Amino acid sequence: MADGTQNSSIWAQLSSYFSEAIEALQDSIVAIDTGRGITSSGVVWRPDIVVTTHHNLSHFEDLNINHAGKLLSAKLIGSDRATDVAVLRASSEKLSPVKSTQSGPSTGEVVLSVGRSRLGDISASCGIIARTGDAWRTWRGGRIDRLIRPDVQLYVGQSGSALVNEQRQVLGINSPALARQAIITIPTQTIDRIIDTILEHGHIPRPFLGIAMQAVAVPEQARSLFPRDVEQVLLVMHVEPKAPAASAGVMVGDLIVSANGEPIDNVRDFLHWLSGLSIGETISLAAIRGGARVDLTVRVADHG
Amino acid sequence: MAKTVAIAGNVVEQKKTRELRPSPLRVLPCVTTTRLSKYFTALQSDTQIDLLPTALVSALPVLIRSPRFDAIVMAMEEFDATVWQSSSVLRELFSATPTLLLASELNPSLRRRAARFHIHSTLPLNVSTDQLLAAISATVAGLAVTLEVPSLEGNENTVWTQAKERTFDEPFVEHLTVRETVVLRLMAVGHSNKEIAFRLKISEHTVKFHVSSVLAKLGAFSRTEAVSIGIMRGLIAI
């Protein structure tokens, strides 16, 4: 048993499991020419549907994808900046969709990241699941249904690679753009939801009011104007011309105290609340302007 | 020549710097552009310091692996944000090695940015050789040296202050210019540099300049992060 070349050694077994799992994904992983001199990896998610990360794509509708050295053409059908998902249509009999899973991995599970290099050969890295958690919001307000942070390396061209578990199921695609120094896996539920919305609407509707705000402390002299437990309010810094807030009469300098009756004291909460609204809905904002309370009704628009 | 140095309010007599240090200081001169490569020639003949060959700032992350120098002196024509954007490596190097920054135009914004990189000694490019030597030894001794207007008569205008213990995690509020805000808003809707250039009828090079300035001012590492910070700062409409 001291013979390290023994085929049945755990090392050899593990290696062949890994390489077989990667081999099995050959027809489901492509390289996408981003138009910016680099490529990203794409995963064939459904028949004719490829997903990748949005952040490094240029805004061309027609993209080239590379599958094992064969060039195919693809069309960008839509993407969501907030969750960093881009959806492409590419037809070829060669491509077959991955088996995705919605079940959450557990911390410590060994996973593979499988992508394609610029030249079209498969490239992979291995690591463990470093952290898992509940649903969270990205810094652009996009809802990510489950936190998966794998301890894998994304080499050049591997943005958008598939995260694969021991059962050769895909847990999601990997993005380096959702956290400053960590790789985040965009999970299956999120990808499915975005594909469905994009196929239906052509884009992800993004609720928009058209106001830029900053949190400020309640001015001491005007303390009496505000509800007692309110410490911070949102100061309107800019109103986008022709946007819903402008039509509703929101003005630069307004101090927004509450939205739909709920006190809101920081921009992040406001953004998250806004992201959950539907297009066309009307909301009410309570503001203090020149020492008097004003109530404003704003209709949520779609920023596209 | 004996110098009077005020350290945190106390006036102390400082002997000739030459006598304070038995061995010459190893000083690494660096420049941001090759136009300045001859800048340090005057220092070569001085015995007080051991001047290493002039390096480019962009090469610093490589040189860092063999830090066999006591101080770094950097000369630049204008504050080039792109040089700084890159790395925590530089930040670490400057916090570990006494560093002086010489620039053609000194202003509070430059000082703040330099301070973020743990550089507390800032001097104008037209400083005299004596002043520069004195500033180098003071910086090595842990002082922050700032010189507003170079004086030909001596060191009366030199402001010597003790390097303050500061935490640089606290966010610096740097205001974006109107142009930079416009660029940031276009970044927010996902436009590339090329598209921004087209819309604003300026060159792509200028756009890159604005973008790097926006990132530096907001302390962002990426466009996405700049946009996210911009939203929190009330610069981008939601």
Quick structural gist:
With 304 residues, chain A is mainly beta. Chain A is built from four helices and 22 strands. Chain A has a six-stranded antiparallel β-barrel with strand order 1-2-3-6-5-4.
Question: In words, what does this structure look like?
Answer:
- The complex is a heterodimer of chains A (about 300) and B (about 240).
- Chain A is mostly beta strands.
- Chain A has helices at about 10-25, 190-200, 245, 265-275, and strands at about 30-35, 40-45, 50-55, 60-65, 70-80, 85-90, 110-115, 120-135, 135, 145, 145-150, 160-165, 170-175, 185, 205-210, 210-215, 230-240, 255-260, 260-265, 280-290, 290-300, 300.
- Chain A has 2 domains: about 10-200, Beta Barrel (Thrombin, subunit H), CATH 2.40.10.120; about 205-300, PDZ domain (Pdz3 Domain, Roll).
- In chain A, about 15% of the residues lie in helices and about 40% in strands.
- With about 240 residues, chain B is an alpha/beta fold.
- Chain B is built from 10 helices and 10 strands.
- Classes of the chains: A mainly beta (about 300), B alpha/beta (about 240).
- The interface of A and B includes residues 141, 210, 213, 268 and 270 of A.
Please, how many domains of chain A? Answer: 2
Helix-strand makeup class of chain B: alpha/beta
CATH topology of the largest domain in chain B: Rossmann fold
Largest interface: A-B, 29 and 18 residues
CATH architecture field of the largest domain in chain A: Beta Barrel
Share in helix of chain B = 25-40%
From the spread of the alpha carbons, the general shape of chain B counts as elongated
CATH-level-2 architecture of the largest domain in chain B: 3-Layer(aba) Sandwich
